[in-house]
Design goal:
This protein is an alpha+beta fold and 67 residues long. The chain has one helix at 13-24, and strands at 2-10, 28-38, 43-53. The protein is 18% helix and 46% strand. Strands 1-3-2 form a three-stranded antiparallel β-sheet, with helices on one face.
Length: 67
């Protein structure tokens, strides 16, 4: 099965650590990162899609971050 996640966070080192952790757990970058201003909170936000191939069958109750 192919798994997909979209990681997002404020534009801080937290976002970089989140993506780095996913890469070190076997996820691969998918597409370009996104960057947008969150006017409601007055901060820049980052996003990055990641994918992973894994044996098994997908179910909607899976915790994707634990795969």
């Amino acid at each position: 099965m192919k798994l997909y996640r979209f990681l997002s966070a404020d534009d801080t080192s937290e976002f970089c650590h989140k993506v780095t952790a996913a890469l070190n757990n076997g996820w691969s970058l998918y597409g370009d990162p996104t960057y947008a201003f969150d006017a409601a909170n007055g901060v820049m936000r980052c996003g990055q899609a990641v994918v992973k191939d894994k044996d098994g069958t997908y179910t909607p109750d899976m915790k994707l971050g634990e795969q």
